Amino acid sequence: MSDRTTGDDAEESGPAPRPERGSGHRAAPDPFMQQVYPVREEKQDEIPAVTHIDGTGRLQAVGQDRNPAYHALISAFAEKTGTPVVLNTSFNENEPIVESPEQALDCFFRMVRGAVVVENTLVMRQPVETATSEDTGPQ
Q: How far is CA 94 from CA 1, 9, 56, 98, 110, in A?
């Protein structure tokens, strides 16, 4: 992970930890990223990309009962890395946040992103290959 967030990034992104006891990253449960909470000081260096410069974070508690797929993703990340937290950010481009699969794909095609997951489908951008004279036919 990189530097701590500042400015606009601090308002629109945050960690999404699992809310189970013992994860040690969250100060309070919030399933909607509506509030800013202190990130425990001993965890700030572990998750600097989601810790604001003042030591706070816009935390989103992800419960297995509310969002089982996202919870499973965070759990798999925790198994692999030892950190039960992933970066969660709004998905939009100078517009209100997307609210449907159609809006998500429309936004994705306008943005410079490599992939987006819509429901259970991974959509990946394919690199554009440079055309050669052989590919273009006679000139």
A: 25, 13, 25, 11, 11
